[in-house]
């Protein structure tokens, strides 16, 4: 039996349908491509002048000009150890007859964080005598091995203190005014060396402050 060929009008209708369907698919691909244009691995980028709130979860472009040309602005990586080292310098004004706010010194991914506080020890009103408190809080669930050496240990020819810091439990590093300090923090394959100093500034005056300066070095 001889098959009947489709009419010319049917052929034209089928071609038109195929074009329409493929056009919709192409349009959908084009829209999806437009949405992803300028992104890397699905993440959009923001300029170096973007706020930390706007930059959250996105890529950040380096600065195009100025002294920071080719670099990510420091305000976007403040208080976070980046690369091999991190500055831990802080200047904290004491609050008369009060404990000052807790200020982060360094956040060390996979190990923990260092925090500082400047306290007033003098009960006399308007006369401030500082006490610097630095604490370390481990973040590794298995705990962090800590080796601590202070200036007074060196003066007395004593060995440093070695202990394990449990997660989420702050432990004191120093709790007096002026001192050198050295920490070795180790968790699994990661190790960090922290070296710094603390001292009182304008002590026994209404403008006393705690000064801390030092550096964190990632050595593993």
Set out the fold topology:
Blueprint: H1 8-36, E1 45-46, H2 52-55, E2 59-60, E3 85-87, E4 90-93, E5 103-108, E6 112-120, E7 130-138, E8 144-150, H3 151-155, E9 161-165, E10 171-174, E11 179-187, E12 190-201, E13 209-218
Structure at a glance:
It is built from 3 helices and 13 strands, in the order αβαβββββββαβββββ. By secondary structure, the protein is an alpha+beta fold.
How would you characterize the overall build of this protein?
It is a single chain. The protein is built from 3 helices and 13 strands. The protein has 220 residues and is an alpha+beta fold.
Strand/helix succession = HEHEEEEEEEHEEEEE
Structural class assignment = alpha+beta
Q: What best-fitting shape do the alpha-carbon axes yield?
A: elongated
Q: Please bin the fraction of helical residues.
A: 10-25%
Percent of residues in beta strands: 35-45%
| Biggest sheet record | 7 strands, antiparallel
Number of helices: 3
Gyration radius, rounded = 30 Å
Please mark out the parts with pLDDT under 50 across 5 or more consecutive residues, or reply none: none
Q: What attributes characterize this protein structure?
A:
single chain; alpha+beta; seven-stranded antiparallel sheet; four-stranded antiparallel sheet; elongated
